[in-house]
Amino acid sequence: MRTSGELNDGTTIGYGGGLHLRPYRGLPMVGHDGIDGGYRADAILFPDQELAVVALCNGAGIAPGDLTRAVAAVYLDDIMQPAVAPAVAMSVAEQSALAGVYWSAQTDEVVQLEWREGALRQRGSSLAFVPIGDGAFRPGELAQEWRFVSPAADTSQPIQPELRIRDSWPTWRVFVRVDDPAPSGAALAALAGRYYSEETDMTYTARLAEGRLTLSWPRGYEIALDPVGGDRFVGTRGTVTFTRAPSGEIDGFTVSNRRLRRLRADRIDPLTLPAQAIAADPEAAARL
C-alpha cells in the first residue's frame, strides 16, 4: 500500500494501493481524503513520528485537509520544513505579462490568469500569486507551485511559453498559452445546433442568445459557455471544445473536467440522426 505506482516513463505518481504517498513539509506522510453528499473527511499518518490525525466533517464548505495538517503542525512544527517557499522580488511588468489563457493537452483543462488589484490571480480566485523564484509562483499561502517556462531562445519554430502546475495532482500538468481570438458574430452562430452523444445516449443543444452561447440537455440543465480562444469554451461543467471535420465544418464537441476526459457528442441533422435519438425523442427529431 505504501509503494507508489509508476507511469510508463518511470514517473512515480505518489499514490499506492489506496493511499496518497506525498511528503508534507519535509516529512514522509501517507493518507487519503473522502467526499460525499455534504460530508468531508481526511486522514493522514506520519509513520516515522507515529502521529495520525483524522478529521470528519459534516459540512461541504469545510476543508478537512487543512484541519489535519494544522493539528499535525501543533505536534511536529519544530521538525517540519517551512510551510511555503519564501517570496522573492519580481517586477510588475514581468508578472503582469503572464496573464492570459492556458490550456493543457494532457487534461484538456483551461486556466485563466489575470492581473487584478496589483497581483497575478486565477480568474474567480482571490488568492494573489506570490513569486518564489526561477519563474515559479505559489497561490497565496498554498503549498503549490505554478512555474512558467519560456521557450528556448535557439528554437527555430515559434513556441508558446509553458505553464507547469504542481498542486494536489500527483504529477506536473503542462499548459500552453492560448492566443487564438474568441469567436463572435457568424463564427459563434455557426456553433449553434444539436449534438448527440452515443456514450450517454443524450442530445445536447447549443443555442446563441444575446451574443452568448449556451449548452443544454434533458433534466433542465443549461450552462453558459464563455469563449477562451478558437473553438474552446469554459463553463460550470468544465472545458467544452467544438471539433471540426477536414472540411472545416463543425462536426461535434468534447467535454472535459477533473472527473471526465473528452466526452464526445457528434453534430446531428436529419440525415445522420442516430436511431437511438429518434426513438428517445421522435417529436424533437421531426423538428430538425
Attribute tags:
eight-stranded antiparallel barrel; eight-stranded antiparallel β-sheet; mainly beta; 288 residues; disordered C terminus; single chain
Offer a concise description of the structure:
With 288 residues, the protein is mostly beta strands. It has 5 helices and 20 strands.
Which structural class is indicated by helix and strand composition? mainly beta
Point out poorly predicted stretches.
284-288
Largest sheet: 8 strands, antiparallel
Number of strands: 20
Distance between the termini: 54 Å
Structure description:
The protein is mostly beta strands. The chain has five helices and 20 strands. It has helices spanning 64-76, 92-96, 186-189, 275-280, 282-287, and strands spanning 20-21, 30-36, 39-46, 51-57, 100-103, 110-116, 119-122, 129-133, 136-139, 145-149, 162-166, 173-178, 193-197, 202-209, 212-217, 221-229, 232-235, 238-244, 250-257, 260-267. An eight-stranded antiparallel sheet has the order 7-6-5-12-11-10-9-8. An eight-stranded antiparallel beta barrel has the order 13-14-15-16-17-18-19-20. Strand 17 and strand 18 form a beta hairpin. The chain is globular, with a radius of gyration of 23 Å.
Describe the secondary-structure layout.
Blueprint: E1 20-21, E2 30-36, E3 39-46, E4 51-57, H1 64-76, H2 92-96, E5 100-103, E6 110-116, E7 119-122, E8 129-133, E9 136-139, E10 145-149, E11 162-166, E12 173-178, H3 186-189, E13 193-197, E14 202-209, E15 212-217, E16 221-229, E17 232-235, E18 238-244, E19 250-257, E20 260-267, H4 275-280, H5 282-287
Antiparallel strand pairs: 1-2, 2-3, 3-4, 5-6, 5-12, 6-7, 8-9, 9-10, 10-11, 11-12, 13-14, 13-20, 14-15, 15-16, 16-17, 17-18, 18-19, 19-20
